[in-house]
């Protein structure tokens, strides 16, 4: 985000005598040190890297006239408050401070009271509103069919380019591999990737070299991508407000865009919460033909060849009316051909024919 603000500041001040600099982590410090020592009128910075430069005396704030705190609520969520307080204390109290926030929580009100003098509140748009240029679509799919659904949308041309959101870094990496295996140009962007890798992935996406940018919520705010046609919620966000931030990457500056959300049976409540938050019903779209729910697994050849159970053994056992108690040994006397008498032992049957079965 810092890099994008830097780019915009340079573009807006192209014909003005303003030098713009940018410092952020994940990249070497030496080029930043050289830039700071040459002097700048506008400095765009992330809190951590700015304090690194303060610690090595690469930057002085004595002449600062304006302090802009952008995405204040996000910086609070990410635990940057102690760093921001240190920076604010280093800047002259005669400054003018501007604080921007997507939400106006109690914490933000408290910060405004501490850092701003007689502030004027400017509300650009009501909280959690979404632009009318975005079409909201929900597709009911099973978890196992999500990737097939996305591939079908891309291969059939229904989605030309998309920023796709996953809830985890592992999920983003896995989906990226699945898309690449289908010959779909894709890259992942999340906090495990270096700043250089993230910048390269974003640049490739902006120029159309990459068709799909798979991201975690690290990319939900601040990304400025011109004419992005689609945002896909591969995983619905855990927080309904994050839905608003995600889809805000499309439908910008009057352009039309579409937000497609995959909804599993477990996600139904999340969809209802989103609809309630944005006061809008999400349009239900049928899955594409190539991604219908998977059929039940067919019976294996081994299973199909199993010998069927003999109906004889499925009949209920009924004790023979002539037998009661344990089996008895019965002695019979037989006369053999030699004329000798032999004893023959016979054990009474333990199991008699089932009821209704005729005896031979």
Explained architecture:
The chain has 360 residues and is α/β, with parallel strands linked by helices. It has two domains: 2-115, Rossmann fold, CATH 3.40.50.300; 134-288, P-loop containing nucleotide triphosphate hydrolases (Rossmann fold, 3-Layer(aba) Sandwich). It has twelve helices and 13 strands. It has a seven-stranded parallel beta sheet, with helices on both faces. A two-stranded parallel ribbon has the order 1-2.
| Number of distinct beta strands | 13
Count structural domains. Answer: 2
Proportion of residues in β-strands: 15-25%
- The helix-strand sequence is HEHEHEHHEHEHEHEHEEHEHEHEE
Strand order of the largest sheet: 7-8-6-9-10-5-11
Largest sheet composition: 7 strands, parallel
Structural class by sheet pairing and helices: alpha/beta
Give the CATH H-level superfamily of the largest domain.
P-loop containing nucleotide triphosphate hydrolases
CATH class of the largest domain: Alpha Beta
Report the average pLDDT across residues: 83
* Unreliable residue stretches: 320-330
- What's the CATH architecture name of the largest domain? 3-Layer(aba) Sandwich
């Amino acid at each position: 985000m810092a890099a994008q603000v830097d780019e915009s500041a340079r573009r807006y001040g192209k014909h003005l005598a303003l030098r713009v600099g940018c410092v952020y982590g994940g990249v070497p410090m030496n080029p930043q040190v050289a830039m700071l020592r040459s002097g700048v009128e506008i400095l765009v910075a992330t809190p951590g890297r700015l304090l690194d430069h303060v610690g090595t005396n690469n930057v002085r704030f004595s002449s600062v006239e304006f302090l802009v705190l952008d995405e204040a609520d996000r910086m609070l969520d990410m635990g940057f408050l102690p760093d921001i307080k240190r920076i604010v204390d280093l800047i002259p109290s005669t400054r003018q401070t501007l604080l921007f926030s997507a939400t106006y929580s109690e914490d933000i009100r408290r910060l405004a009271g501490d850092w701003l003098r007689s502030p004027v509140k400017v509300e650009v748009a009501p909280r959690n509103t979404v632009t009318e240029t975005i079409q909201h679509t929900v597709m009911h799919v099973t978890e196992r069919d999500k990737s097939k659904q996305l591939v079908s949308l891309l291969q059939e041309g229904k989605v030309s380019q998309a920023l796709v959101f996953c809830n985890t870094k592992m999920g983003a990496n896995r989906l990226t591999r699945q898309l690449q295996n289908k010959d779909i140009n894709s890259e992942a962007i999340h906090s495990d990737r270096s700043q250089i890798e993230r910048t390269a992935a974003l640049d490739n996406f902006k120029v159309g070299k990459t068709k799909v940018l798979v991201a975690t919520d690290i990319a939900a705010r601040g990304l400025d991508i011109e004419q992005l046609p689609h945002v896909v919620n591969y995983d619905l966000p855990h927080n309904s407000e994050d839905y608003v931030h995600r889809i805000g990457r499309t439908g910008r500056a009057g352009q039309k865009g579409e937000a497609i959300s995959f909804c599993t049976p477990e996600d139904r409540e999340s969809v209802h919460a989103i609809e309630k938050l944005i006061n809008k019903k999400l349009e239900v779209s049928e899955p594409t033909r190539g991604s219908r729910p998977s059929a039940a697994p067919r019976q294996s050849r081994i299973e199909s060849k199993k010998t069927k159970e003999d109906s004889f053994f499925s009949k209920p056992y009924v004790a023979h009316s002539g037998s009661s108690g344990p089996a008895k040994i019965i002695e019979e006397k037989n006369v053999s051909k030699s004329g000798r008498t032999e004893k023959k032992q016979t054990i009474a049957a333990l199991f008699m024919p089932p009821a209704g079965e005729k005896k031979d």
